[in-house]
Amino acid sequence: MLWINLVDKTGSGLWVSVTALYFVVVAGLSPGSTGLLLGIGGAFGIAGAPVAGRLADRLPLTRVLLGVQLLRAAAGFLMLPAHGFWQLLPLVAAASFGERSASVLTKLFAARVAGPDRARYQAVQRTVVNIGYTIGGLAASAALAFGSTAVYRLLLLGDALSFVVVAVLVARCAEPPSATRTVVTHTGAGPVAAPARPPANSPWRDRGYLGYAALDSVMFLYGCALSVGLPLWIITRTTAPHGLAAAVFVINTVIVVACQVRLSRHGRTPRIAADALRRVGVWFLICGTATAAAVVHAPWAATLAVVGSAVALTVVEMIQSAISWELSVSLAPADAQGAYVGVHGLAQSTARCVGPLLMTSAVIACGPAGWLAFGAVLAGAALLQRHLVLRRLGTVRPDAAEPALSVAPVTVSEH
User: Fold this and answer.
1) Does the pLDDT at position 345 exceed 50?
2) Which of 318, 329, 276 minimizes the C-alpha distance to 115?
3) Residues 260 and 126: beta-carbon distance below 8 Å
4) Cα distances (Å, whole numbers) of residue 267 to 320, 379, 393
5) DSSP labels for 138-198?
6) Helix 2-16 crosses helix 85-114 at what angle (to 10 degrees)?
7) Helix, strand or coil, per DSSP, at residue 412
8) Is the pTM of this model over 0.90?
9) pLDDT for position 86
């Protein structure tokens, strides 16, 4: 699965950095239509997480992931001849749906394969993801030096082909152990099967888990702060060099690759993850304060403040991702892990849709006070989530942290 993630994200790195430019330069859309296209397409992607989680409970996970990767490849190939808003909209929506589905499915795969060591596995996986994005991004930057429409099409083609390669790799993966798919062995005495479990719990009726996921969606706004808020803040409100807007991504990638595995210890167990939320709250406050302070007139001081904010956001990303990974799995009932993790996937999708508008219309518009409030709100969300998680850990069943799925077992016959 690590090779799958490396190929997937290398292809995505080719496309992500030129997506908007492609739609304007090659597809002939206006900047406003491009924003609308990406916004509506991203909204369709929100459904990918819960749908994929549910399907992974009822069908072999590797087959579902294979179908999703083929969907992403088809969307990419069909974009090449597409022109105009209405031709592109269903393809962008399908690509977004596939991207969010693949994210949840790879998470479920890792949870089943890694078991109790899933926090460290996720850390290694995130490191590989960042390496893939870096490789793809650097290749896209070099290609853009030529600036022709043929180059844009080649980058999109490379992205689509990467999903074909990923689909081939997925087809070669063995199906991971699953608590809801019982293998039946035929013997001389006839087939023997385990008894079916009672109907699964529904995450949509679990207010405690929904509250946990909702608070995670608030904390996931750190991603938009790093990708949208901080670069715009540098350019429009500070005296720091404008080149620093691109450098924050380099800072982020280098630190994640160097430190993500080490910081995975914060998600080693549910209790440790809950306690680490206090550290996350402190780093949120540091981020808000440092970004607000970047309005100082001295360029060197503004630069230091911006770098401090980028480092704080990166530390938040590394610790919170380990915490979120562990808690989203361990807080789910043993007979409903797939559906619960799918619902949790809505948190990041929602943050990605709401975040850019929130950054531009509220946080940046309010100046330094906006950043101070941003840090305080996210810190409060971290502390409130810690309270909810500790309360749930006190009442959750002992088997709730065991890998499982969310429907009665599907019997698979093996001769």
Assistant:
1) yes
2) 329
3) yes
4) 9, 18, 15
5) HHHHHHHTT--HHHHHHHHHHHHHHHHHHHHHHHTSPPPP-TTEEEEEEETTEEE-PPPPP
6) 160
7) strand
8) no
9) 93
